[in-house]
Amino acid sequence: MLKPQDSETRDARLLDGIWSFSAGPSPGARPWTAPLAGGRDAAVPASYNDLFTDDATRMHVGWVWYQREIRIPAGWAGQRIVVRVDAATHRGRVYLGDDLVAEHIGGYTPFEADITDLVEAGGTARLTIGVDNELTNETIPPGFLQEDENGAVHQKYRHDFFNYAGLARHVRLVATPKERVTDVTIVTEEASGSAATVSYRVDTAGGSAVRVAIVDEDGRDVAHGDGAAGTLQLSEPRLWNPGEGNLYDLRVELLADDGELVDVYRQPFGVRTVEVRGAEFLINGEPFYFRGFGKHEDSAVRGKGHDDALLVHDFALMEWSGANSFRTSHYPYAEEVLDYADKHGMVVIDETAAVGLNLGLGGGVHGQAGEPAFSPTMFNERTRDAHAQAIRELVARDKNHPSVVLWSIANEPEAVEPAARDYFEPLAALTRELDPTRPIAYVNELRASFHNDAIVDLFDVICLNRYYGWYVDNANLSAAETRLERELRGWEETHGKPIIIAEYGADTLAGLHSVHVQSWTEEYQAELLDMYHRVFDRVPAVVGEQVWNFADFQTSPGIIRVDGNKKGVFTRDRRPKRAAHLLRSRWATAPTRNAAPEPGDHA
Predict the structure, then answer these.
(1) DSSP assignment, residue 341?
(2) What is the pLDDT of residue 1?
(3) Which of 313, 391, 403 has the alpha carbon at shortest distance from 109?
(4) Which of 31, 164, 238, 387 is disulfide-compatible with 303, CB 3.0–4.6 A?
C-alpha cells in the first residue's frame, strides 16, 4: 500500500489532534450512529491506555470508539477520497456517518476506507473509528481472555510488553485521481560504484501510459523509462550504505492519450544489494556487522503513539552510541521510522507482530508447557493464516525501504516441537516468494538449541536471544561466558550461517550501584555486556550484536516486573545508564559501515 503524499495530482491532510473518545460498547450497540455518548477527549496519535487516570480505561478489554467531524476540501471534486488509518491496534472499523466503510485485522499495518461515494467536496461528515484490542490464540500476536471470580474479563497475552491499543499512528484524509498509481516495486539488480541496474514495476488503476524517471538528490533526472515494468541503468550511482543514506526518487507519471498528466507519485528508494554468503552478511558485496538494539515504540503517556520529536531523539541517541542498526521488535514500526532510517543510513531488521507463539515462556522465564503450542486447539491453521496475512502486509508496506535488509517473521516461537515445521515452512516460503531479494530469519529462544531446532534450516540467518548471566547463571559471569561460547560455536559448526545476537542484556535499576557482583546494578549490566562482547569477538560466525533493550519499557502488571522491563541501556525517559557509555566506547570507534570491533576494543 502506497504511503500518502502530496504531488501535482494528490493531496493528503492529517486528521491528528483531539478526537471524541469512548471505551465500549461493542459494535452491536451501534455507537457510531450519533455523537458518542459520554465521550471525552483523546489525542490521536496515541495509545489510549495512559492518557487518563482511571484503571478501567487503562486495562479496558474490547472496543473503543474515536469520533470527529471532517470537512472535504472543495477542490477535491472528482477525486477518489479515502480515509487512511496507519494502524488500529489490533482490529479496526471505519464508519462514515452510519455506514461501515472499512474493516481491518492486524494492529501495526495500514488500511484505507474509500468514501468517495459518500461525501461531497466542500461538505462535512461524521467519521468514527472503532478499535478492538482483544487477542486470541488465532490472532497475531496471540493472547486469551480470562474471567476472574467476580466475573470481570481480563486480557492475557504472551508477549512481554504492555498491550497498548488505540489509534497510535496518523489518520489521514487523502485525495487521489480515480485513474492512479496503486503500487510501485523497486529492486536493485546489480550495484557497484560505477554502475547499477534497477528494475521497477508499477501497478495502476486505469489504462493510462506509464512514464518513469530516476531523480537524484539534486533533483536531476538521471534515467528514464516507459512502460509499467522495466529496468533502468545508472552510471556512477551513489549507493545506499550503512551510515550513508543516499536516496533517489522514482518519479512515476500516468499520461492520457493526449499526453495530459493524470497522476504523479514519487517513490523514494536506495541503490543497494543484500546477500548472505556462507557465514557472512553482505551489503553491497561488503561484510556487514550489526551493532545496535532491539527497541520498542514505547514512551510515557503516549504508549505506542508515534511522536516525531521522540523519533529524532532516539536516532540521535543511537548515533551517539555508535549503533548502525536496530530490530523493529516485535511488530512493524510506524512508516516514518523507516523513512528516517532510510535517510540516515540506519540498518533495520523488520519484524512481524508474531510474538508469543510459545507456551513455555513468559517474561523471559522458561517453564514447561502443559500442551503443544502448534495444535488444532492452540496455534492452528487459522493462526497461520493470520500470520501469513501479517507477512503479506509487512512486505507490501516496507519492500522499497533500503534500510530494511532482513525480514524477521517471528520472535521466540516454540521451535522444538515437530509441528513447528508444518507451521513455519509455508510461511518461510511465502516470505521468499513475496520478496526474493532479502534474507529471512526468525528469532530463536534458548530452549531451541543448535541440536534440536526444528525450523532453523528454513532461514538464512540465525538470530538468537540469549540471557546467560541473567535468567541462566545469574550473577555468575564466568559460568555464563563458558555456556555462551560453547553454544555459539555449536551453532557455527552445525549450521555455518551468520549469527546475530538479537537480544542480550540484564535488568538494571538506574542509580543502583555496588562494588560487588550484584544483579540489577548499573555495574552488573555493563559487566554482563562486556562479557558477551568478549565472546562475540572470538566467534567468527557472529555478525551482529543488538542489545536488549534500547530503553526501559512498560509491560503488563505483574510481580516479575516493577514498572516495566528495565533492560534498557537508557531509562524510559532516555537518560543513559552506565551500559550506554560502555556501548559507545565499543561501537563509536568501530568503522561506520561494516566491520566488527576488533578483539579487545571493548571497555
Answers:
(1) H
(2) 81
(3) 391
(4) 164
259-284 confidence digits (pLDDT tens): 999 999 999 999 999 999 999 999 99
Same-domain status, 267 and 400:
no
Q: What is the mean pLDDT of residues 549-576?
A: 93
Write the DSSP string, 219-280: S-EEEEEESSEEEEEEES----BTTB---EEEEEEEE-TTS-EEEEEEEEE----EEEETTE
294 falls within a domain: yes
Share of the chain above pLDDT 70, in %: 96
Residues in the chain: 603
Rounded percentage of the chain residues whose pLDDT exceeds 90:
88
Selecting among 335, 414, 503, 522, the annotated active-site residue is 503
Catalytic residue flag (residue 414): no
**298 and 377 fall within a common domain:** yes
Is 515 contained in some domain?
yes
Q: Identify whether residues 42 and 116 lie together within a single domain.
A: yes
Q: Please identify which of the residues 412, 414, 445, 545 carries the catalytic annotation.
A: 412
Per the prediction, the chain carries an average pLDDT of 94
The whole-model pTM stands at 0.95
Please report the sign of the dihedral spanned by the C-alpha atoms of residue 163, residue 169, residue 175, residue 180.
Answer: negative
Strands 325-327 and 347-351, by their bridges, are parallel
Tell whether 215 and 162 lie within a shared domain.
no
Q: How much is the pLDDT for 364?
A: 55
Residues 99 and 235 in one domain: no
**Does 4 reside within a domain?**
no
- The domain spanning residue 307 has which CATH number? 3.20.20.80
CA distance 39 to 20: 5
Same-domain pairing of 159 and 220: no
Which of these ranges, 33-37, 76-80, 296-300, has the smallest mean pLDDT? 33-37
Whether residue 144 is predicted with pLDDT greater than 90 in this model: the reply is yes
Active site residue 217: no
Identity at 8, one-letter amino acid code = E
